[in-house]
Fold this sequence. Notes:
Layout: E1 6-12, H1 19-22, E2 28-34, H2 40-44, E3 53-56, H3 63-83, E4 95-99, H4 103-112, E5 118-121, H5 123-136, H6 141-148, H7 172-181, E6 188-189, E7 198-199
Parallel strand pairs: 1-2, 3-4, 4-5
Antiparallel strand pairs: 6-7
Amino acid sequence: MAAPGSTLTVLSQEKPSELSSLSLRKNVKIRHVKGDASDPEALSKLHLAKADSVLVLQRGEGGEADDAHSLLCIHAVQQALADAGTSLLDASAPRLIGELSSPEMEQLICEQWPGAAEDFVLPRELASGTLVQFALQPELAAVFLELLSAEGKEIFFAPAEVYADADETLTFGEFCKRARARGEVAVGLQRAGESMPELNPSQGTK
């Protein structure tokens, strides 16, 4: 769920066919810019220092080739930010989000930019963990399939103003009721300035 007024910019050599369906989404304006995501000059034109997040997706070749390209793109992001007078290590820098094939590459990136705001997904690790859960708890297979399939349910962050006015203070129980009224299930909350969300807090938590 994107906050009203959000803009999603896709930088790639070819325009993805999926963008036509995404353009129908509420709250977000989607635009495509032709260019190489590993080229600092192309990234500099996007004014990354003003972005909230930078998402680095892999090309689908798999393994070391994809990880090497992701690392190249991250270096290009750092160079583009440096040209704008900032860095991935600055508190105001955009959050770096991406997918990687190997835990070793994730460790390398975290060591190179310690303290940077970053989140990485390792699809292979996720898949292997899910298979283990299937084996240990086969009765939950339908739940995992619903959560992990493209057509299934999704878990997302939504801004507080979706559920409460700016001057309101809600308990988590009240928040859950408002979420249910929207056909949603609240599983936690994310406090401003905190790096990790609170999952399933007590009903009286404010």
